[in-house]
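All the exercises in this workshop are built on plain-text protein records. Sequence and backbone structure share a record, each on its own labelled line. The question running through the whole workshop is how a given chain folds. The record below serves as our worked example for the rest of this section.
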Amino acid sequence: MKTATKRSSLFNLIAFLGDIAVGLNIISIPLLAIKQNATPFVLGFIGFLASLIYLIFSPIFGTLSERKDPFYFTVAGTLLFAFAGIFILSFHTIPLIFLTMGIFGLATSMLWSPLEVWIARTTENLKLAVSYYNLSWCIGLSIGTLLSGYLFQLDWRFPFIALFLTCLLTTVILLLCPRVPPPSVVEGYGEEDGKTSPFVIVGWTANFIAWFTIGVLRYLFPKLAVGLGISPSTIGALNFLMGISIASSSYGIGYLPKLHYRLSFLTSIQLLMMIGFLIVYLTSSVPLFYLSFFLFGFSIGVAYFYSLFHSLESEEGQGKKSGIHESIVGAGGLLGPLTGGALAQKTDIRMPFILCIAVLLLGILVEIVYFRRASKR
């Protein structure tokens, strides 16, 4: 029991530190690009590029982690992430920011899917393991985004130096984790007779919607905020609140009985997210922005839990499904900034938030129709 607890604590610490690094990056890169006079389309393309690489390679590394020790992929990804943080200090023109974001996308695809397989392979209670994992990365992301805004306001180099040091510390902790060889025999549970639970597809759909919208927020809201005279530290604080909200919902659902098997709960939470986007579209009030970012985070946390838990629920194909789960994160993060950036370029900076409402409505409809049909089958 002590060994299992120690292993779980180390994994949660890795998730915490890894997303501090991600949080330091996702606020600083758009602000650095804005400093280089980037247009809304360029900002969207920056997010598109990182997400494209992440989308392509997450299923690959997830599948490989079932056959090989996940340790190698997680260490390599963390070191590559550290290298990208140092690279951007010397090379930060717009074309080289594109290159750096591609490196970030590859590095994170080597880290997250293998780490999730590693956790699922060693836990005795998947539901609670997913809750603690989500809590850890969400708090890390919240702290990273908060630090990023304040550090960038002091000196644009500081967030990337902090990112490099955080990745080095994460690598040291990975070296301390118990090595887990891939299982020789895989027996499924949670899915019978080769049938996939309808909640797998529903969770993936909700996850895509969540990360489509968060991609728009990460790369285009800073442009709106700067135009309204909102400081980098406030942008960081808004993202910090969203991260805490993600942590609260994705952690709390692990302790609530059977909510992760209720479609009505998921769709109700997604409707709250639509209210948040209406607030951002209609107002320029910072206090109301805080309310909307709380609603965003709450919905994203629930969607992410549905997607990850149901991807790992059956031992059969854990690596492949966790890779798809993470590639969906990349797909949403790819299409959100790209389409949102193009729309903002042709209309105005607030129109992408109406796009997010439309995507939410379409996604809820898809979830309901698919679930009803799959349940009948």
In short: The longest helix spans residues 2-35.
